[in-house]
Specification:
This protein is an alpha+beta fold and about 650 residues long. It contains 13 helices and 33 strands. The longest helix is centred in the C-terminal third of the chain and has 19 residues, at about 440-460.
C-alpha cells in the first residue's frame, strides 16, 4: 500500500508530494456504480473532504501524510465539478461519470492513431467529447513511485494526434469509440504502455518473487535502489568472458587476419536476426565486415555509423575497440581514433548481445556507413559475415543494466507507470503485449496470470475484466509445418483468457504483416476488444469470439475437430480451409486437407495413416481461413501437449 511504503519519507520528501494526486484532473472520467477513491498528501492528521454533486466523502491524512477519501459518484453523464478541501482548495471541472479502462502493453498498444490505417481520416473524424484520454509518461523506477504526472483531455482531432509516436493509442481509441457508441456512456482511456517491453517489467516485486524465475533481476533492482549501478560495463565484460568462448582472450574474432570465410554472409540489407535466418535467437552473435579503402584517405575525423543495434553492441575497427552501447534504441555513431583507418583492407567487428525479441542491426540500411573527414561516405549495408556464438539458454543470467533508459527490467514499469495510478476506480484493462516474451512462451503461461492477479490485488477492486490481444501473424509464412515460439505465446495468451476468470481474448491472427511487427489495422483490434468487453464486462449476449477448439475424435485415418462459438455456422475465408496440419506417433506434422462436416471439421493427410494430433494456424505467420458466421477468426490451437521450443526457456 502507498501509505505503508511512504512511512519512511523525510519531512522534506513528504512536503514535495502534491496535495491531490495528479491522477485526477479536469476533463477526467469517474467510474460509475462504485466508490471512487481520491488520494493525496498533507500534514498527518489533516481532515480532507471531497464532494461531487452532493456526494461527499471525508477522511484524515495518516502518519505518513497520505490521505484517501472514497466518494460514491453521481449519475452517469455530467459534466460535474469535484471539490477537494483541506489545507488547499482544489476544483476539478468538466468531470464525467462513465467507465474507465486501463490500456497497457508494448508497442502495438502504444502505436498511435496517426500511423495506423487511415490515420489522417480517422484523426479528422475523432470528435467524441464524451471520450476522455489520459497518457501516463514513460517512467522506469527501481522502487514504487508515488506520483507520475499526466493530464486528461476530451477526445478531439487535436488530442488524439498529440504526444509521441503519432498520437494516442490507436487500439485503445478504437476500443473506446466502439464502447461509447454501443453503451452511450462516457469512456475514460488511460494509456500506460511502452514499446518493446517485457511483461515482468509490468509486474510488482511481491508477485514475481514466488515465481523464482526473476530473482536475479529483482536482486539487481533491490541493490540499485540502495546504491547507483555504476559498474555495469565491468559486469557485462565479466559475463562475456565467462559465457562466450569467442570473448575470451586470443579468440581472434577482432583481428583483421582472422579467417571468417566459413561464416555465412548477410544479404544486401542490414543484418538483423530475422533477415539472416536466426529469427528469435537470443544470445551473442558476432558480425564482421571487410572494406577496402583508397590510398589517399581524406584527412579529419572519421565516424562509423551503425544505426540501432538490439540489444547492445561492442564494436572494433582493425582490432581497436571504438565504442559500445547498452541501449537497443540508440543510433551508434562512433568517432574513430586518428590513424585507425588505413588504405586497403579494413575490418569492422561488432559483438551483439540480444536478450529478447528482435536482435541485430535494426535500422534502415541507409543508417550503416563510414563517414570520412571530408564528409564523403562509404555504405556498409550488406555483406556482413556473422556467427552465432552462444545461446542464452546455455549461459548464466546476463547482468541487468539498471538505468532510467532501460524498461526491460523486472518491476520497473509497474513501479513507475502502474503503481502511481492505483487505486484509481476503473472498469477493467486491455492488454496488447507478448512479442518481447515470445522466446519464453511457456513461462508466460504463468507470468501473465501472475501479472493479472497482481494488478487486481493492488487495485483493490475485485476481479475486474482483463482483455488480451493475441499476437498478430508476422514474419515469413512457413512452407511446411514447423515449431513456433510465437504460436506458443499465442497459446499462453489463450490459456490465460480461458483460465483466469473475467478475462477475454481478441484475435489479430488475420490482420498482420509479414514484414512489419506493427500491423496497421487497429480498427479490427479495437472492435474485437470491444466485443470481448461487451460480453465479459457488460454481460451482453452477442458473438464475441471466433471458433474455439472444443475436442477431437479420431475416425480411422482422419480426425474430427469440434468447436465452440460456431455462431450459426463455420465458413472458410476464400472458400478453402487452410492452415491445418496433422501428425502421427513420430510427432512430424504434415499439411492436411480439411473439410466441413456440419459444425465440425474433418482433417486428414495421405502422409499420415494413423493420426494422433491436429494443429491449426500453428506458426509465426499462418494463413487464417476458419471463421464463424459472425466473421470472427478461429483461435489457433493444437490438440497435442508435446513439449514446444520454449518449454525450457527462462
Amino acid at each position: 500500500m502507498i501509505g505503508s511504503l511512504l512511512l519512511g519519507l523525510t519531512l522534506a520528501q513528504q512536503s514535495s508530494l502534491p496535495f491531490l494526486s495528479p491522477t485526477f484532473g479536469d476533463h477526467m472520467v469517474l467510474q460509475r456504480d462504485r466508490p471512487n477513491t481520491f488520494w493525496g498528501w498533507s500534514a498527518p492528521g489533516t481532515a480532507i473532504k471531497v464532494s461531487v454533486a452532493g456526494h461527499v466523502g471525508q477522511s484524515t491524512a495518516d502518519a505518513s501524510g497520505r490521505w484517501a477519501v472514497k466518494v460514491s459518484p453521481p449519475p452517469v453523464g455530467g459534466p460535474y465539478q469535484v471539490s477537494v478541501d483541506g489545507p488547499q482548495h482544489v476544483v476539478l471541472s468538466d468531470v464525467l461519470v462513465g467507465d474507465v479502462w486501463i490500456c497497457s502493453g508494448q508497442s502495438n498498444m502504444e502505436m498511435g492513431i496517426g500511423i495506423a490505417a487511415n490515420g489522417p481520416e480517422e484523426i479528422a473524424a475523432a470528435n467524441y467529447p464524451n471520450i476522455r484520454l489520459a497518457m501516463v509518461p514513460h517512467a522506469v523506477e527501481f522502487a514504487p513511485r508515488a506520483v507520475n504526472s499526466f493530464s486528461w483531455a476530451p477526445c478531439s482531432p487535436e488530442t488524439v494526434a498529440a504526444n509521441g509516436w503519432s498520437g494516442f493509442s490507436a487500439a485503445a481509441y478504437y476500443f473506446g469509440r466502439e464502447l461509447n457508441k454501443r453503451l452511450n456512456v462516457p469512456i475514460g482511456l488511460v494509456e500506460t504502455c511502452w514499446g518493446g517491453t517485457i511483461a515482468e517489467a509490468w509486474t510488482s516485486r511481491q508477485s514475481l518473487l514466488p515465481l523464482k524465475d526473476f530473482d536475479a533481476g529483482i536482486a539487481a533492482v533491490d541493490q540499485h535502489a540502495k546504491s547507483a549501478n555504476s559498474n555495469y560495463g565491468d559486469q557485462i565484460d565479466a559475463w562475456y568472458i565467462q559465457n562466450d568462448p569467442a570473448s575470451k582472450a586470443n579468440s581472434g574474432y577482432t583481428n583483421t587476419a582472422f579467417d571468417d570465410s566459413s561464416w555465412p554472409t548477410s544479404p544486401t540489407v542490414a543484418a538483423n536476426f530475422d533477415t539472416i535466418g536466426l529469427g528469435q535467437f537470443d544470445g551473442v552473435v558476432w558480425f564482421r565486415k571487410e572494406i577496402t579503402l583508397p590510398a589517399n584517405l581524406p584527412a579529419g575525423q572519421a565516424t562509423l555509423s551503425l544505426g540501432a543495434i538490439d540489444d547492445q553492441d561492442t564494436t572494433w575497427v582493425n582490432g581497436v575497440q571504438v565504442g559500445r552501447m547498452f541501449r537497443y534504441d540508440a543510433n551508434r555513431q562512433y568517432a574513430l581514433p586518428a590513424s585507425i583507418l588505413k588504405p586497403g583492407k579494413n575490418v569492422i567487428v561488432v559483438r551483439c548481445l540480444d536478450t529478447g525479441g528482435a536482435g541485430g542491426f535494426t535500422s534502415d540500411a541507409r543508417a550503416l556507413f563510414l563517414k570520412f573527414g571530408d564528409g564523403t561516405q562509404q555504405v556498409l549495408e550488406g555483406g556482413w559475415k556473422y556467427h552465432a556464438s552462444v545461446d542464452l539458454k546455455n549461459c548464466t543470467p546476463a547482468p541487468q543494466q539498471l538505468d532510467e533508459n532501460n524498461p526491460n527490467i523486472p518491476t520497473v514499469l509497474y513501479n513507475g507507470m502502474i503503481y502511481p495510478i492505483q487505486p484509481l476506480a476503473i472498469k477493467g484493462a486491455i492488454w496488447y503485449q507478448g512479442e518481447s516474451n515470445a522466446d519464453r512462451a511457456y513461462q508466460y503461461r504463468t507470468l501473465l496470470p501472475t501479472m493479472i492477479r497482481d494488478w487486481r490485488n493492488e487495485w483493490h477492486q475485485g476481479d475486474f475484466p482483463f482483455l488480451i490481444v493475441q499476437l498478430a501473424n508476422f514474419m515469413a509464412a512457413d512452407s511446411q509445418p514447423v515449431e513456433s515460439a510465437w504460436a506458443e505465446l499465442r497459446e499462453a495468451q489463450a490459456m490465460t483468457a480461458n483460465g483466469v476468470k473475467h478475462s477475454g481474448l481478441a484475435l489479430a491472427i488475420d490482420i498482420g504483416n509479414p514484414t512489419d511487427i506493427h500491423p496497421k489495422d487497429k480498427q479490427d483490434v479495437g472492435l474485437r476488444l470491444a466485443l470481448a468487453a461487451l460480453h465479459t464486462a457488460y454481460g451482453q449476449k452477442l458473438a464475441y469470439s471466433g471458433p474455439t477448439y472444443k475436442f477431437f475424435r479420431k475416425e480411422g485415418a482422419a480426425i474430427r475437430v469440434s468447436f465452440d462459438h460456431v455462431e450459426g455456422g463455420l465458413k472458410a475465408k476464400g472458400g478453402t480451409l487452410k492452415g491445418f496440419a496433422i501428425a502421427g506417433a513420430d510427432h512430424r506434422f504434415h499439411w492436411a486437407t480439411a473439410t466441413f462436416d456440419g459444425s465440425t471439421v474433418l482433417v486428414q493427410s495421405n502422409e499420415v495413416s494413423d493420426p494422433l494430433a491436429v494443429r491449426y494456424d500453428w506458426g509465426n505467420n499462418p494463413e487464417a481461413s476458419l471463421y464463424n458466421s459472425a466473421d470472427l477468426p478461429a483461435v489457433p490451437f493444437r490438440t497435442d501437449d508435446w513439449p514446444g521450443v520454449t518449454a525450457k526457456n527462462r
